[in-house]
Write the structure tokens for this entry.
Amino acid sequence: MTHGVLPSDNRALAHAAGADSRVGRHVTVIALAWTGVQLWAASPLPLAVGVFVLGDAGLRSLHLAFALLLTFLILPAWGRPGGYRLRPVDLALAILAALCAGYLQLFYARISAHPGDPGTLDLAVALTGLVLLLEAARRLLGLPMVLLALAMLVYLFLGPHAPELIAHKGASVAKAMEHLWLGTEGVFGVALGVSAGFIFLFVFFGALLESAGGGSYFVRSALALVGHLRGGPAKAAVGVSAASGLFSGSSITNVVTTGPLTIPLIKRIGYPPEKAAAIEVVSSVNGQVMPPVMGAAAFLMVEYVGIPYLDVLKHALISALVAYLGLLYIVHLEAVKAGLRGLPRLQRRRWQRSVLRFVAGFAGVAAVLLGVSAFGALGRMLLPSAAAWLTALALALAYVLLLRLGARQPLPDEAPNAPLTRMPAAGPTLKSGLHFLLPVGVLAWNLVIARLSPTAAVFWAIVFLIFIVLTQRPLHAWFRGEREALALAFARGLQDLVDGAVSGARGMLVVSIATATAGIVFGTVTLTGIGLVMTELVEVLSGGNVILMLVLVALICLVLGLGLPTTANYIVVSSLMAPVIVTVGAQSGLAVPLIAAHLFVFYFGLLADVLPPGGLASYAAASIAGANPFRTGYIAFRYSMRMALLPLMFVLNPKLLMIGVEGVAHTVLIIASAALAGFVFISFNQAWLLVRTTRWERLALLGAALILFHPGLLLDPILPPFRALPGAAAQAAIVAAPPDAHLRVVVEGRRLEGQVVERVVLLPLGQPRPDAVSRLAASGIDALADEAGIALRAVAFGSPAAKLGVEAGFRLKAVEVAADRIATEWMFLPALGLIGWVLRRQLRRREAGASAGAQG
């Protein structure tokens, strides 16, 4: 029996495909075809020429067809991957699975013409496809995902026989198959759509950058910059994992990609194997919270929360920065406690000179990018019709200049992916691959400045990166005077392109199969209404206590996330648990922004990758380090405790998500206080600041960290943070709210079950309007103002108001605005006082210890 290959996905898949040369060739051709279809669908060409125009359902159908075809060809029905020849049964299953997945694209017009009345062939295809999807998930992901999907299917069909609390009327086979396979509510739903529309392109971008040498360049650059510091290789691993996490869709992939390079180095300077593996685990898991991809969750949040992509990145940025800065601090503390040093330098330099060289180099690259931007802007002003071509020309010139600079640098002694044994020279290492920053800069520019859609942004970045992959080796040979090697260099460039496409397709198998299988869970939730049952269950168990509710949801997310890859993990926990936080919080007077609830469950679902027995990232890193996986998982979970505190804090204090933050000064204050809070909490958790902390010092540090994260903990019990405005004052407050504001609104009404409820929700109001009724329409509310206030006549399905638990028939009771009191940020002063008290005590002890050592 196959037990899934997730802990070492890319290496196992590559080994499996290479076991039979014919299988390897077929896999390469299919991967290239899959990549070609995805790039064609993302490009403007289909609409321009009117050929092979794919709708959402068609693209999702072909996306899953390719993924299933590759999965059954690469992974055997039994035994471990590798060392086998393709069996006829696997070939037959591969073709049958691909046909079942492609059925929606082939016959979509006929299926959509008869909704609610699937034919016998339709049902046979749906049932077969569902069974083969679960078998593919078993081979690729292991049993946890399959068992969860089977449990949801059992619940779907046996709902009338379930316990009263979770019972439902059930579904026929025809209704279930139409919902799960023959439409876009289940397997071919939003999750697979995001995988097909966004994630594939970002993963291909990362794979192509890796095959071009960008991955090795970033590893060596990080080591060249910080390798000489205390715990330098470990700090470099943190930075490299942050970089690889920008485009990766899996924490496991991060571990097996960067771990073989970084873990041996971390061990070499003195970290025990378990700690070396744990640092890589936490670095890789943290990569999943790093914008712009966030393990593909960023794109899913756009669909599930209903906010723009850039808003998702803005809300997630502070917590991601706190997580990574905190991990660097943990690595530093571990090095200090163990008395570890960094890698030896090749030559000693004054630190001032090193800083100046780094700043000069960074400024040079920034100048090149700014020059390209200025040239493009000038072109748009003078020649609007040729602006795109002028920008492309400027990028090409910048690329050639940077590549020529890199070609002048000496080649490294080691092979590109060989384990490093000493610190690389900083100057030559950094200059050797500056051109790899250009496609990353193009992607960032397209997303943030040009405001292109994620698909268009990464597509044009890929086009530029393909140009780099094909030309960098020939140009490099030309600049080095190796003219006779041009043909060989161009052939190697073509091979790099093929390798990147195949690697990207293989890397997508986990995400594609996981999102499709998670669609079974999501489809069952929408068909049975189990989400409402989960809300009632948590509400009963928590007794309305907000903190207890958050703890219960966190524990459930840890359990639900066991053994699931990042994307499937988020889909499952967000569909089941995010509405619970919003609804129960609203009934307890806590207005939780929907994005905060989704980030909360995302963070705790990710922690399941760390903690055994389901911590697959810990198993993968432990196998590389030769460490005990359970010990590794325990240490990694301890290092990740700040990631457990952060979600609790930003649910209670949405300012940590940049909600309600105005102005540059306020933004800087929030970021600085959050970063300091993270450092202080880590010192509490590690029992070390300047020296080992005492019990009272740890308590003081914990209190300071909590106050810095949520200053309202001190102020709110003394001075209420909000005052209620009823009637006409509430309407005036709605009209006066600034653009895109989130306003606290109190609604009350009777639910369908007859229960009278009152909820506090944080409504997004959009742009200003002349009256309250039209302003509420931005949230999906059809309201009517009368003498008694505002009646909510209807709430649009899937609107922000509906997702927050607002129902038709409710009344707007009041609007809550900030009370006239001192700013909560003044509470930072007591926190700083506690930190100062601890520092003073520790300085005295350290000085006393130094004096005693000197006398001895």
Notes: The CA atoms of residues 261 and 418 lie 7 Å apart.
